Amino acid sequence: MSALVAGMAMRTCLGDGEETFLALLRGRAGVGGLRYLDGPGLNVLRGYHIDAEGPDEPAFRASGWLTTCVREALEDAGVDPDRQRVLAIVGTGLRELRELERWSEEGGAFATDRLHFGAAVREAAPGIAGVITLSNACSAGGHALALGQDLIELGEADAVVAAGADSMTASMLAMIGLVSEQPAEQLRPFDAVRGGAVLGEGAVAMVLVGEDAHVRPKARVLGTGLSCDAKHETAADSGGIERAMRDALERAGRAPEDVDLVIAHGTGTAINDPLECELLNSIFGRDAACPLVTALKGALGHTSGTAALMSADVAIRCLREGSVPPIVGLREPIPEAARVPLVLDHWGFASLNVVQVNAFGFGGVNAVTLLEATP
Asked: Is 85 exposed, middle or buried (0-12, 13-18, 19+ CB in 10 A)?
């Protein structure tokens, strides 16, 4: 049994969901100078920020974006938590750790429960039955989507909000700075002269309902393949990722040739990009049957645990519009991508029925989702 996407909302460095998709089609990148934090000290000078007024860093930024997205997604779906059984699962990589960093610097009171997102969701939907926050690294949003589908299939809820939210933290930026010889100007997925990861931020929410719900769905969630190989603290493992891809196809009841488009994880890093290309060739074959492949992080930055759901939002818009955005920042593909049909330079039209979304996280926590068009 699948689940239907009845409503969705997003905030990225490029705007709301519709604004983001139009900017992606035009090849825009939302990268700019790093705000609020000591860029030179961290060896990080650029980031994909959501615009904020004034020079000061607002408090609980991720929570604010999440509240807005949950409220808009529920309205879009026509779902009322006061009258229906609605649960929420929020996937995140960093939670509200930036607020803890600021508290450690400035002192004062700090409510530890606000590290998670229960209060942010309940501000948008006071009648919601329960909120769970998952911190599953960069595949957290994919896990939220998978668990949301499980709850719908098991009849545990009338609707589930699968959501994600992340803002930049000094600790994560410092880690990126430590492994970078030079600060990257832009994230360049699958590019031979890539400079490494550049962080983004934002929030996204999707409302899932059952097949028997009286809604006009935006798309169908066929299934999500999950794996956790735990082979290395940070480096991806090909075996674990391949298991997640094949698990997704099996759960969805689809064959590789049924996939029309892949939205890749595409982190612009030395290990991930070649490995992802090799696995795409392994799963889909090294010929014209391989689906189109695009990636979003060159335009949106690496949005940590929110990335999978942001890709899912864009995937649904691709299905509905029949158009595919190019890989922003890609100029010279890596050799491993020679047989991968990457979408370059400009957007194009395509006949799309099934889209695959890849999300791989530290520790080998992986999620691969298949989405299908609906009438």
From this structure: middle
- Residuewise pLDDT in 10s, the chain (375 residues): 789 999 999 999 999 999 999 999 999 999 999 998 999 999 999 999 997 666 788 889 999 999 999 999 999 999 999 999 999 999 999 999 999 998 888 877 778 888 899 999 999 999 999 999 999 889 999 999 999 999 999 999 999 999 999 999 999 999 988 888 889 999 999 999 988 899 999 999 999 999 999 999 999 999 999 988 777 666 667 788 899 999 999 999 999 999 999 999 999 998 899 999 999 999 997 655 789 999 999 999 999 999 999 999 999 999 999 999 999 999 999 999 999 999 997 776 778 999 999 999 877 789 999 999 998
The encoded tokens of residue 215 equal: 């809604």
Whether residue 290 lies in the annotated active site? no
Q: Tell me the residue type at 213.
A: A
State how far the Cα of 224 lies from the Cα of 252, in Å rounded to an integer. 8
| Per-position DSSP letters for 209-223, written without gaps between them | E-TTSSS--SEEEEE
Our answer to whether residue 13 is catalytic in this structure is: no
**What's the first-to-final CA gap in the chain, in angstroms?**
18
Residue of 13, 49, 69, 138 marked active site: 138
Q: Which of 116, 290, 302, 318 is catalytic?
A: 302
Catalytic residue among 13, 69, 265, 277: 265
Angle at alpha carbon of residue 11, lines to 249 and 269, rounded to 5°: 55
Length of the chain: 375
- Provide the residue type at 87 as one letter: L
Q: With contact defined as beta carbons under 8 Å apart, do 326 and 294 qualify?
A: yes
CB 323 within 8 A of CB 350: yes
pTM for the full predicted model: 0.95
DSSP string over 260-306: -EEEE-----TTHHHHHHHHHHHHH-SSTTSPEEEE-HHHH-B-GGG
Alpha-carbon distance of 216 to 320, in angstroms, equals 13
Domains, the chain, with CATH or none:
3-372 (3.40.47.10)
Judge whether 302 counts as a catalytic residue.
yes
